[in-house]
Amino acid sequence: MKPLEGVRVLDLTRALAGPFCTLMLGDYGADVIKIELPGSGDDTRTWGPPFIGVESAYFLSINRNKRSLTLNFKEPKAVEIFLKLVSESDVIVENFTPGVMARLGLDYDTVKVANPKIIYCSISGFGQDGPYKSRPAYDQIMQGISGLMSITGEPDGEPEKIGIAVTDIGSGMWAAFSILTALHHLEQKGEGQYIDVAMLDSQVAWLTYQAGYFFANNTPPQRLGKAHPTLVPYQAFMAQDGKYFNVAVGSERLWERFCQGIKREELKDNPDYATNGDRVRNRARIVPLLQQYFLTRPSTDWVEDLQAASVPAGPISDLADVFSDPQVLHRQMYLEMPHPTLGSIKQTGLPLKFSLTPGGLDRHPPLLGEHNQEILKGLGYSTAEIEQMVEQSVI
Questions:
Q1: Cβ(376)–Cβ(387) under 8 Å?
Q2: Model-level pTM greater than 0.90?
């Protein structure tokens, strides 16, 4: 049995934040019904290249463990079908611009009449209230307005975005967490509720210690490239072979081991570098000194020596390295699953390893409307009625 088995989720999301939320729920057993527009579906079905056959690699990466139902909410029959589903479901997730669901007659106040215990989670850029609530939002915009890009990049360079859509993914994780807490409350008190998740809030919450630094001195933190604002050495260095590797010295004990591991024990006896505070104050001296020294040997040699000295160190891998890494393979973070038109597809694995209730890759990313018949017949509609829905552009 999977941990979320028996939970039904109606997924009215597209792009990344919402689909990542429902991916997490589906991976661990929830019955996720992805509701899409007939004919086109989720926008990301066409995002690319790259494509695998005619399927978007982007879409395939975040939509497994879901069933697809197409509904055209401009038709009253589609709203009727949706409300029937609501009466048999536990969770609704949507990520439309605030106000859209109300205009469709599918907002929380309306649907809770069909199911007072429903948990209804809305994900939006700026939340359901406030001066920015109606603004459109994508991850790129949110990384900028949240301050994240101001602290990402080289000190003398331009602001940089993170290499993945971290605000989208983070918002999806917050949404999944909020749904689990609401399900717990439902179990304890028998009450459903509405959840408002904003991408801006989600990313601001993730500023954590950088926000703490600002609160401490009222000075905005600056970009430090590959380095850490309060730990030295804690960054990437280039080696003789032109490859970079990471070092993370997070304590004085590690500093001693670091100096021993690189065979520069005189550094730990230098009063300018004796404590982390000393090294932070003298960053402009110690970092260039180390960088010059690291140019004398290949990166693999440095990593091996530092790991042998029990100092956290590692290579900077590209994705070809990652998906051939023995630890990644051992942890089953690179898997294949069958697909009806592509034969098989490759997927990232599940990061949470439960001893009793593991998740799994049980459903391929669905074809558009693949489960229309299955879901509608489950609601009691006949084959003839379903055929009529197709003719009337309901599904």
A1: no
A2: yes
